[in-house]
C-alpha cells in the first residue's frame, strides 16, 4: 500500500484530533519519549507535533469553548490520551508503560538507586573500580561479588562516570523512560494528576484530623451554615440541604393544618343560671 503524502496525512490527522475532541470529555496531557503504549483498548493516544495539535484544538474552540484550557499545557514533547474509562485506572495503565534507559554520566538521577548484594559476573580486575565507589566486594569463584546493599544515587544527584558504568551493567540498569502525566482534562475542568489520588477515605481522614484541631466547635456549625447557604443559592445540593430548599420553594407545604377543637361544654352542662 503506497504511503500517503504529507498533505493528506496532515489532513487526516487534523480530522482525527477533531473527532476525538468531539467524542471524548476526558483526556490526559502527558510527556512521552520512546514509549510503546499498551492501553488494552481503554484510551486513544494520537501523538503528533504540538503545532498540529494546537491548531486542531483551536479549530474546535467555537464548538467546545472549554478546550481552550488544553492549549497552555501543549508545550514540549507532549500528547493526548483520550478515554471514556475511569481516569485513575487509565492513569495506572499509562504509568505502567516503561522502557529501559541507559544511564548517562552527568544526568540527574530521577530516583534513588540501591545496588543490591549480588555476584556481578565481572572479573577480579574490577575490585579497584568498586572500591572507588565505596562498595565492599570479594572475589567469589573468579568473579566480583558485592557483599551488601549500597545506596549509590539519591533522587536529584548527578550521575558520575563510574556510577554510570556500573548502572549500565545488564543485571542492574535501574532507569527507564516513563510517561509523565502533566495535566488531567475532565469535562471542561483541568487539574494536576495528583488529584486522582484523593479518595473518599482521604477526605474523611482529613476532615477528622481538622475537627480535632478546631478550638471552637461553633466554627464547624458556621461552616455548615455556609455550605447550606451555598446550596440554597446554587444548583449544588446534598441530602441535609434538600429539606431546606424544599421549604424555601413552597413554605405552605410545611404549614400543619390547625387541629379542630371540640366544643367544650360549659361547666353548667349547657344550662344557664336562669334556664
From TrEMBL:
InterPro entries according to UniProt: Ribosomal_protein_uL10, Ribosomal_uL10, Ribosomal_uL10-like_insert, Ribosomal_uL10-like_insert_sf, Ribosomal_uL10-like_sf
Keywords noted in UniProt: Ribonucleoprotein, Ribosomal protein
A Pfam family assignment: RL10P_insert
Span of domain Large ribosomal subunit protein uL10-like insertion: 104-169
A cellular component term, taken from the record's GO annotations: ribonucleoprotein complex
Biological function: Ribosomal protein P0 is the functional equivalent of E.coli protein L10.
UniProt cross-references to PANTHER family, sorted A to Z: 60S ACIDIC RIBOSOMAL PROTEIN P0 (PTHR45699), 60S RIBOSOMAL PROTEIN L10P INSERTION DOMAIN-CONTAINING PROTEIN (PTHR45699:SF11)
Similarity comment: Belongs to the universal ribosomal protein uL10 family.
Entry protein name: Large ribosomal subunit protein uL10-like insertion domain-containing protein
Amino acid at each position: 500500500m503506497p504511503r500517503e503524502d504529507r498533505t493528506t496525512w496532515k489532513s487526516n490527522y487534523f480530522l482525527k484530533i477533531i473527532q476525538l475532541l468531539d467524542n471524548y470529555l476526558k483526556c490526559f496531557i502527558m510527556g512521552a519519549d520512546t514509549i510503546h503504549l499498551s492501553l488494552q483498548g481503554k484510551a486513544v493516544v494520537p501523538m503528533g507535533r504540538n503545532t498540529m495539535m494546537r491548531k486542531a484544538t483551536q479549530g474546535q474552540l467555537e464548538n467546545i469553548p472549554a478546550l481552550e484550557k488544553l492549549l497552555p499545557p501543549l508545550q514540549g514533547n507532549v500528547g493526548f490520551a483520550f478515554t471514556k474509562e475511569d481516569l485513575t485506572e487509565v492513569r495506572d495503565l499509562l504509568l505502567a508503560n516503561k522502557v529501559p534507559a541507559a544511564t548517562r554520566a552527568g544526568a540527574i538521577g530521577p530516583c534513588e538507586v540501591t545496588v543490591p548484594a549480588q555476584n556481578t559476573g565481572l572479573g577480579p580486575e574490577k575490585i579497584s573500580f568498586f572500591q572507588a565507589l565505596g562498595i565492599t566486594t570479594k572475589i567469589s569463584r573468579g568473579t566480583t561479588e558485592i557483599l551488601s546493599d549500597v545506596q549509590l544515587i539519591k533522587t536529584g544527584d548527578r550521575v558520575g562516570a563510574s556510577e554510570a558504568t556500573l548502572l549500565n551493567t545488564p543485571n542492574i540498569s535501574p532507569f527507564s523512560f516513563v510517561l509523565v502525566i502533566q495535566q488531567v482534562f475532565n469535562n471542561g475542568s483541568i487539574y494536576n494528576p495528583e488529584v486522582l489520588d484523593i479518595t473518599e477515605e482521604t477526605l474523611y481522614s482529613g476532615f477528622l484530623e481538622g475537627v480535632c484541631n478546631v478550638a471552637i466547635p461553633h466554627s464547624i456549625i458556621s461552616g455548615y451554615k455556609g455550605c447550606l447557604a451555598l446550596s440554597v443559592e446554587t444548583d449544588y445540593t446534598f441530602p441535609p440541604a434538600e429539606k431546606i430548599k424544599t421549604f424555601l420553594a413552597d413554605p405552605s407545604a410545611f404549614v400543619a393544618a390547625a387541629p379542630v377543637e371540640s366544643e367544650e361544654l360549659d361547666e353548667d352542662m349547657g344550662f344557664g343560671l336562669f334556664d
